[in-house]
Design brief:
With about 180 residues, this protein is of the alpha/beta class. It has five helices and nine strands, in the order βαβββββαβαβαβα. The strands form two sheets. The protein has a seven-stranded mixed sheet, sandwiched between helices. Helix 2 (about 85-100) packs parallel to helix 3 (about 120-130).
Length: about 180
């Protein structure tokens, strides 16, 4: 009897009270320090501004490479301030993850844009199709869209280091068994 391989696609399911950004950044840093080819993006802490919050993504392999993904809409604005141009610029990091055959790709979120097939959806699909383990974060509001997007092939993780490490160890074991 063979044991099924753990899915190489995972999402940290979190609510607004448990933002996974610091967890993802620390996890990526530990795996890079261990010599793994980790590529991807993490959210930096939000910076409050007069026009709401400033959102910035950081390349996990180059902390100086930052991608602003919000736009100033003015003090009376109440809509989403995501900047499609910033998202497009940042998505290049995920395309490089594919080109460089990363051992692990981290995408900061599956959210508003990705749930409608926009944002970084194409890059996420390409990584999944290439069999590169993918780790992201999903809020409950987008969980059904995530499940549809992945065809039910993803695991849902809690936001803690032990769970991430267990998933990653299973991915590494699966890779070794396949080699």
């Amino acid at each position: 009897m063979t044991t099924p391989h753990p899915p190489a696609i995972a999402a940290i399911v979190h609510d607004s009270n448990s933002e996974p950004d610091a967890l993802l950044a620390a996890f990526a840093a530990r795996q890079l320090a261990a010599g793994h080819r980790v590529r991807g993006l993490v959210h930096l802490p939000h910076e409050p501004t007069a026009n709401g919050k400033r959102m910035v993504l950081m390349d996990v392999t180059d902390p100086l490479s930052r991608y602003p993904i919000s736009q100033a809409l003015g003090p009376a604005a109440c809509g989403c301030n995501l900047d499609p141009r910033g998202i497009a610029d940042a998505s290049g990091v995920l395309r490089r993850a594919l080109q460089e055959q990363a051992e692990l790709a981290i995408a900061n979120r599956f959210g508003t844009l990705e749930s409608t097939g926009q944002g970084m959806a194409d890059e996420l699909l390409a990584l999944m199709m290439a069999g590169i383990p993918l780790l992201t974060a999903v809020k409950p509001a987008y969980l059904e869209a995530w499940r549809e997007f992945t065809g039910g092939m993803a695991v849902e993780l809690s936001a803690d280091e032990a769970t991430l490490q267990q998933w990653w160890a299973a991915c590494l074991a699966n890779r070794e068994a396949a080699a």
